[in-house]
Amino acid sequence: MAKRYEWVRVVPSIVWALVLAVLMGLGVGVHLVPLDSLSRFPVFQDGIQAVAGQRYFLGDAWQWPLLDTHSLLAPQGASVAMTDSTPLLLLLFKPFVALLPAGFVPYRLWLVFCFLMQPVSMVLALSAAGERRFTALMSGAILALCMPFFLGRIIHLSLMGQFLLLLAFAFYFSLVRGKKWALGLTPIFLVICLLIHPILMLLASGTIAAVALTLLCRRAKAWREVACSCGAGIALVLIVSEVLGYFRYAQGAGGYGLFSMNLLSPFWPMHSDLLAFIPALHYGMETQSFEGYSYLGAGLLLLLLCDVVFCRRELLSVMWRHAGLSIFLGIMALYAVSNTGYAGPYQLWHIALSPPLADVFRASGRCFWPVGYGLLIAAIRLSRFIPRRVGGSLLIICALLQFLDTRSLRAQAHDLWKADFPVTGVTRSLTGLIGDAQQVALYPVAGCGLDLYGPDADRIMTVFRLSAEQNRPINTFYLSRPPKDFACGREKPQADQAEGTLEIYVGGLQPAANRHCQDLDGLKICPPS
């Protein structure tokens, strides 16, 4: 009997950890994001933006550049990279669009994949760092899957791909240990990150580039080949960006310092179940409450506290041995706080100068994500210096606390993805009018008076959603960056209504007298004559 089960002991702990991580991530993903309908739109603004881009792209013929669809900003077209529609996903599915169900959009499959990859990537990162303890690998997987700022980001589809940051740590540790395969794969990995979201690419490239600085601090000659690999990666990213048309759009939208991280955010238990008795954090700016949400979770905070108390010397030693990574994460933490620093409601500093890439990292609170994951990896690895029985029990307790602390975040995600739009008389009428038209023209256009955050926001997003559902080209849309050649003077209603075009006016803008229009729930609807 003992020989029969001997293979269980022979299989490495990382294999068991990966198998369990896949099952755990897949189970959580399918539970939180039901796959009963692969054509239904999300009920929130960012989700409508991303999924409308997916629907338009898959419903259109191939264009050049490859990520363009002529159905957005018709007739000129726009890139779905600017709708945060996870371009890599669309490039993979588009060749098979004839085999897909009508109205198919892949975002739910993507979200389930993100939940699957989050614990798997954590196991790979820990393994690359030298971790072999099964308890540590599984505890790390649970802590990563229950990271509050991961679960709280579920309304932003592309940025749920935070597993890429964990894979970047796996690349970091592999390169530090001299793994040659990582040198060749780094450029490909960075392009993959770009095609999911440029911010993830920038954060991942910084994490990997920190290898060169770490090796330089160690006076290891291998830093040169790592620098060459990172340089090749950045060059390839720039070439792909140019070919796919990324540079046709404004590189910044302003706002650095507004969407920053509050200094108390990582430690203050916002949206915590176990520490719900602690009052809510009062932000200095309300814009910090979402983009700056960086709570680490009760389990990770306890583990970090124990490491600081019992492993101070080892912590300092690790920081020195990985000096490049420590410097990069320190810079990212400062970047996240921004040039206007707040602790709770109190402003601690304001610096008029903005750092490099401020427009790109305008939602600077996101820069804390690699810091949070770096702290998680460090906390797991340092636990090996705690006596074995105590350390193993501590890891299990911390993983359990992290899971219990994030129950409400998972419940909110589950309810959010089960929700659907109510069918009302207004939506039925608007659906019919859009279906009878060949294209839709909404005025004023985005960037020229269309208020996407004002009292008409729901009406505007309804027009976007219903137009995408019926694959009707639309003249304007909610883009993360406008085209460089965009000019409001060219985006006004024509003197005569174009044939087959349904014109919709919102806000205070009134249609010309030669239109035959009707009022519908605050919208001026002008069907084609």
Any key phrases for this structure?
529 residues; DUF6311_C; membrane; single chain; Glycosyltransferase RgtA/B/C/D-like domain-containing protein; mainly alpha; DUF6311; 20 helices; globular; 6% strand; 4-stranded mixed sheet
Adjacency order of strands in the biggest sheet: 5-6-8-7
Distance between the termini: 83 Å
Helix content: 40-55%
Mean pLDDT: 92
Q: Which sequence of SSEs, written as H and E, runs from N to C?
A: HHHEEHHHHHHHHHHHHEEHHHHEHEEE
What is Rg? 25 Å
What spatial form do the alpha-carbon principal axes imply? globular
Structure, described:
- The mean pLDDT is 92.
- The chain has 529 residues and is mostly helical.
- The protein is built from 20 helices and 8 strands.
- The longest helix is centred in the first third of the chain and has 22 residues, at 107-128.
- The relative contact order is 0.12.
- The chain has a 4-stranded mixed sheet, covered by helices on one side.
- Keywords: Membrane, Transmembrane, Transmembrane helix.
- Residues 24-407, 432-528 form the DUF6311 domain.
Outline the fold blueprint.
Blueprint: H1 6-10, H2 13-32, H3 45-59, E1 68-69, E2 78-79, H4 87-93, H5 107-128, H6 134-145, H7 148-151, H8 163-176, H9 180-194, H10 198-217, H11 223-243, H12 288-291, H13 298-310, H14 312-321, H15 323-337, E3 340-343, E4 346-350, H16 369-382, H17 388-405, H18 407-418, H19 425-436, E5 439-443, H20 457-469, E6 501-505, E7 518-520, E8 523-526
Parallel strand pairs: 5-6
Antiparallel strand pairs: 1-2, 3-4, 6-8, 7-8
Helix pairs in contact: 2-5, 2-6, 3-20, 5-6, 5-8, 6-16, 6-17, 8-9, 8-10, 9-10, 9-11, 10-11, 10-15, 13-16, 13-17, 19-20
